Amino acid sequence: MIEVEEREEQQPNRSTTTMNTTTKIILLVANSIFLGLGTSGGPLVMRLYFIHGGKRIWLSSFLETAGFPVMLIPLSISYIYQRLSKKTTNSIKPKLVSMKLPLFLASAIVGILTGLDDYLYAYGVSLLPVSTFSLIQASHLSFTAVFAFLLVKQNFTAYSVNSIVLLTIAAVVLALRSSGDRPHGESTGKYIVGFLMIVAAAALYGFVLPLVELVYKKTKQHVTYSLVMEIQFVMCFFATFFCIIGMIINNDFKVIAREARDYELGETRYYYVLVWSAMMWQFFFLGAIGVIFCASSLLSGIIIAVFLPVTEVLGVILYKENFEADKGVALVLSLWGFVSYFYGEFKKERKRNKNRRLNTEPPQCPSIIP
């Protein structure tokens, strides 16, 4: 009888674990979609700005994080939901802002680094064609893997290593012919500067992703998805502030109206491009830190890399770029790498669940028959 009661008491815990796992999977899928949209849409819209007459690099940098006020909507919904839930259970009322000072300062530092990365990336995009974005994808994944190992002791499996190698090779295949895509009238010097800027941006963001994961691990607060959105808000605020300073020094605010009038697609569409650029990049940053929260910084880097072929295909369709055999090979390699990573994670999760079941099952006592 005692054994039956103990098993009944354990049952709710199992249900809670299952529910939490399901919620985590849903969040991971949603954030992966956000990250995919931002990874492909962000650089394409940014390049659209430069192709048709946009010249303000600091403005483009600013747009990469300027959409952060949108985060107030899900944050408000989360707060209202928690408040209603606590009222039903007579628990302590949730705080409007749950982030404490140490976490705020860490998020601010990451935000400033992100602002610097925004500038490096925008500078490179202003000088390089869409097909050359493969360079940032290739080096970004490699830097993320190295820094994830150094900062958060990310464990590598044969499948994750295979995935990194395949995705890196896929991006390098695309990069090998990037010099043939040099924009008309651009000097070799500018092309090299663009190349170096985009690789530097890759290295810096490859450091930022594991750094965010390290912040999650080291903080003394309980990390919830609501807190993750607060971290995202603070990071983007400081990144945007960093870029605003650059815009003021470069007099960008004074020339936006004139640039809009001279824009090849028209003044109205100029502002549409700016707004959509801000929205796409907000999807990117929200998805990136969300994937880190649900899984790891390495997975975040791999999703960014796997959407490289999507960006290439959209570049071909929207900007009439050539789609040659090397791009087809890169597509196959990227998909192969993505499947390899998830198959490895699937096997690792099955093994973890098996070990958990073995550890939680009560020992069988031999029955004594009088």
From TrEMBL:
InterPro entries: EmrE-like, PUP_plant. It is found in: Membrane. Pfam families: PUNUT. It comes from the Eukaryota. The keyword Transport applies. It is a multi-pass membrane protein. Keywords: Membrane, Transmembrane, Transmembrane helix, Transport. The chain crosses the membrane at residues 25-51, 57-81, 101-121, 133-152, 159-179, 191-215, 227-249, 269-291, 298-319, 325-344. Belongs to the purine permeases (TC 2.A.7.14) family. This is Probable purine permease.
